[in-house]
Amino acid sequence: MDLRLVIHRGLTITIAMLMSLVPILIVLALFWPTLSDRFAPDELLILLLAIVGLSLLVAPTRDIAGKVLDKYVYRTQANFRRTVRVASQKLTRVLDLKLVLAVVSEAVVDSTKPEGVAIYLRMGPRFSKATPETRHQGANFDAPQAVPAVVVEALSRGRDLLVTEEIARERTAESQCLHSELARLNWALVLPLRSEDTVIGLIALGPKLSWDPFYPQDLDLLMTLANQAGTAIKNAQLYTQVVLANEFIENVVATIESGVVAIDSAGHVTMFNRAAAQLTGLAAERVQDQSADVLPEDLGALLRSTVADGLERTQPEIALPDGTVTRPVICTTSPLRDPARVILGAVAVFSDLTPFKQLESERQRAARLAYFEVLASSLAHEIKNPLVAIKTFAQLIPRRQSDALFADEFSRIVTREIGRMEHLVEQLRTLSRPSDRPRQRLDVREPLAQAVESLRPAFDEKRMVIGTSLGAEPRFVLGDHGELEQLFINLLMNALEATPPDGTLSIELTATGDHVTVAVADSGPGIPAELLEHVFDPFITTKQRGSGLGLTICAGIAAAHRAKLRAANRAAGGALLTAEFPLAVAAQATSEVRDRDVNARA
Hints:
602 residues, alpha+beta, Beta-Lactamase, 5 domains, 6-stranded antiparallel sheet, 5-stranded antiparallel sheet, 19 helices, 18 strands, 19% strand
């Protein structure tokens, strides 16, 4: 059997009180005969009760007197457990650094009653005073803004604490220098504040107001408080950094014009800035901490997909309704990861494209107006020259109508000038008429070879050396044979006219990836640098009799075939014109032909 005897604390106090009466009872027993002879029985009973009562009041009276006197001589008897418990409760309930420092300072002052207390924290390379020191009135306690270097060095060497009286008994030069500095500041005790074995601050205490030394139980209590304070101060510093970082991020996110939405791994919205509320028409209070289902469908789907696979996504344009209008936005999503690369959520940044589209529309309108201005001016110039000649001859008809030589000259020149205008009009019709010919899968080498063959006599007449490299394998593109042949003829004619006699001309076909490139290079003077960016604009030419529409027509044909036409100058001299076509596959050609047939029947 396991028997346990439980004795109430009140019983132990009663037994102690009775035992304290034993010496008095022994004295009374010794003097009882004498007392019984001199006092009456009732007087003897009163005396006995008085003695017992006074003996019982000795201890409480002593305690009360001690407390009253200790109050005036600044002596304290700290309750170790209560002090640690209360300080721990307060330190675990606050995260504000100033409140933590106030709790630590209050606990130290209440438990030891020093002349002064100052708390220092590491700020960069030195320890600076974190709060105003607590100093007793009239006390000689100095608390400079920064801790002397000799004190910092002593704590950095791993000393648990610095007690001035103990350091005074050490005989080394360093100890004497340290003691001198502590005595000058009137610091009786220095407690380090540590976090993860790193000194992050210190507590400097002056001597006790009672001039008692710091007893071992005082040091144990203060070291316990310092250890708890170190952890609490570090947590408060980290919390302050997090709060400042969050405020900075929130201020940045709130001021940018792009919408920012973040969700966690569970799909709940954790960030929703002002621009996001404006673009989606949703109130931040309604969205915050809610499921991503409350977001517009396209935006929520992108965020959930990014959380699921951790891949970044960019949608150049999605429709984002806000309840009244639907805006085009560009949206980018990125995963949020922790240092272990675990996905914590995703963030989406989206911007309204409406202003950019309006600007682009205005730019295109301005470009079209500028284009038509150039076109009208160039047309007027090109038509004016033939009309001047025709007008001149028409004015001479009344006076020279009987002159046979004049009639022949009139007929020849008027016919030539009208032919020039007809050619100009035909080129304009080619430039303005959209191509509606069906596209077929064809080998781009065929129209290129036929264009070279068509201009072979002209090349031979100028004694030009033609180099061709078309490759042995077919290169299929989607296009119209006739239009491509016209494109290549215009490119070759441009090179032919720019190349002097006995010059060279190279034609090369190359395939890279899913594109095929046709390059035409001549040995002429090249394209003037100021015209290089405008060489495909209408009526831009370096030839005396050129219309300036040949390369413009080439650019239109290339655009109809989804090709990119570029112009450059070679380092060795001469111009280089390239046309880059997307390669076609059989399935793509079949699909486009089938769609074209369906549209034609419709």
